[in-house]
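If it is no trouble, can you show me the amino acids of a protein and the tokens describing how it folds?
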Amino acid sequence: MLYIILLILKIIVCILLAVLGLFVLLVCVVLFTPLCYRGEADCKGTLDSLRGRVRFSWFLHLVSGHVTYEDGKLDWKIRIAWKKWLPGIEERPAEIEKEGEPKIPAKKVPEALPYKKEEKTEKREEKEQRKETPAALHTPEPAKITEKTADDTKPQKNLFFKIRELYKKILNKIKALYQKIKYTILKICDTIKSLLEKKDKLLEFITDEVHKLALMTILTELKRLLRFLKPQKLKISAHFGFEDPSITGYVLAIGSMIYPFFGKHIDIRPDFDQEILEGEIFISGNIRALYLIISFWNLVWDKNVRTTFRHIRKFNL
């Protein structure tokens, strides 16, 4: 009896160890297997000539897909194991009839014919009755002549009464517009006053020493994460310009933010005189979930970040 109990416990322990091993293996696969991506795009002067393609795959192409933009159309495809997702494909409804059963033709309704015959006979009778009736009966009745009575006529409004009504309408519109402008100005003044009152409270929150340390920790982890996610290959060559030169300047300012990280692989030439867009982009690399877990773990275990997060939840202006 004791041997049987020990044997059952041994089997249960083996099953639990096998499940635990599979779980650990799955976690390792998710954390250490990279998501590979590859993207390329080019443009030859106009937006109509813009085209691009992005491919990605994970775990020996168990999960893969691509997104393509060409001739103004967006196309995509995602595959997980044997299951595929494509745009614009609908599943066909299952057939109701079973295999081997003969198709039974629909029976004709015999009652439809008598109804049609009765309708034809009724139409014939109506035509015969119209022929038999004299033409005088079909003549339309003369229109009734209505005479206007003296009570129906109303006195016309004189010119002075019309001018007075128009003056009242214009005066009411001016008063309503004045009230609306006054209400808007008062609302703006109240908003400015409330912002000035809240300015001191907001500055006190930002300049707090704990909050400053938390912000420095977040920026440090963000830089580390960007370094981990840095693509292996990158090449950007762009010559761009917009109709409004200010938009060109804004785009150049945004592009200059990533220049310190990828300056050797970027060639950007702004054009403030004409509207143009041409160039090529190529990028490839991989992303591991382990990097995200490390950054998140460091932020969670930082005391200053936790304290700042609690203060943000309780903060009210």
About this structure: The chain is about 50% helix and 20% strand. The first strand starts at residue 35 and ends at 45.
